[in-house]
Amino acid sequence: MSFLRSERNAAAILLVAAALGLILANTGFGTALLNANAAHIGFPAINLDLSVEHWTSDGLLAVFFFIVAVELKHELVAGSLNSPAKALLPAIAALGGVVVPAGVYLLFNLGSPYGDGWPIPTATDIAFALGVLAIFGRTLPTKIRVFLLALAVLDDLVAILIIAVFFTTSLNLPALASAAVCVAAFGVLSWMLGRGSRAGASGALTRRGVRILIGVVMVLIALLTWDLTYQSGIHATIAGVALGLVMAAKPAARSAHALQPWSNAIVLPLFAFSAALVAIPSVGISELSPAFWGILVALPVGKLVGITVAGWLGSRFVGRRAPASSVLTLPDLVMIGGLGGIGFTVSLLMNELAFKGIDEVIDEGTLAVLLGSAVSIVVASLLVSGRSRAYRSGQMAAASIDADDAAPADSPFAE
């Protein structure tokens, strides 16, 4: 399982799955795979009828969002975002990384019918960004990873809000209220589970059977919450977010830890494979929609510029109020901006939501997300490698100076 928990390995698996989907979709297997992806699996008794593609994006992806929510809560309560001072600079950089790409996209789509696609290039893929950092930046200081994690977590929070607010077409209030009741019940049961794990040997909740029973009931409530959220008109992945945020800390950490390998090995690769099943359109470059160009430019360019400029301005004007661990140099901010352009998972999801019902634009948007993220991966890899070499050189130079300053063993000044 440790192999599947590695950020480097998770990023590699995700990239291979997306590449495989795109390649197979454009071979002799393409038609069969596309038909299978569009095939519906329904449960009439509970009014559920989704395609395989949507079971993946609406169902399985809720597990990924649950893990994201647990990590977000941890960072807000006890991690790199547990105080306004710590969160200030990453929040400013994250804001720039949302506003500028959205603005770039809208510039390309002035007067076009595809303006609703502005959220697509605003997302950062945590798994991919941290994976690239882990592969190429092994000598970088810890504060860079902390800053990137904080920025990506805030970025995901914005993405969650965008999905909940802008991609909700109509609300079924009774279903939404019922989902809220289920979320509350889930939170109470998780608190009981956490309390039971702290109880003495004689405590009733320490008995294995009772704990298993609570766990089974929580799983059933989670499934019901997902169904009610879907029926309410809100994107069903928000159920995973809500459950992750209300779950008691220790059971949440254990659950996320247990689910992470499955998310890295199955959930995210399946979603990437399914989303990348796109037949490359046989059209000239001039015939591609403005949505394609907006996404393609906004991800690698808009993210890098937005994060860098906002982070630099933030450090200039409010840096004194922030702890030293959250203040980065301009070259480090440029590197973080390059990593931020890796949209991938959430960008692919937003692409499907923004252009729902316009299949040809969804296909172009998917290609643009894959290409834009690929450019960002290459650029970020070069930037991270360069900064890693610079830090390593600095460490070696400092060590050399320390060695030169040290007195020889036979020196009269040696102790």
TrEMBL record:
The keyword GTP-binding does not apply. One of its GO terms (molecular function) is sodium:proton antiporter activity. InterPro entries: Na/H_antiporter_dom_sf, NhaA. Keywords: Antiport, Cell membrane, Ion transport, Membrane, Sodium, Sodium transport, Transmembrane, Transmembrane helix, Transport. It is found in: Cell inner membrane; Cell membrane. GO terms for cellular component: plasma membrane. It comes from the Bacteria. One of its GO terms (biological process) is regulation of pH. It is a multi-pass membrane protein. The keyword Lipid metabolism does not apply. The chain crosses the membrane at residues 54-72, 84-108, 120-140, 147-167, 173-193, 205-226, 232-253, 265-285, 291-313, 333-355, 367-386. It catalyses: Na(+)(in) + 2 H(+)(out) = Na(+)(out) + 2 H(+)(in). Na(+)/H(+) antiporter that extrudes sodium in exchange for external protons. HAMAP family: NhaA. Belongs to the NhaA Na(+)/H(+) (TC 2.A.33) antiporter family. This is Na(+)/H(+) antiporter NhaA. The lineage of its organism: Bacteria, Bacillati, Actinomycetota, Actinomycetes, Micrococcales.
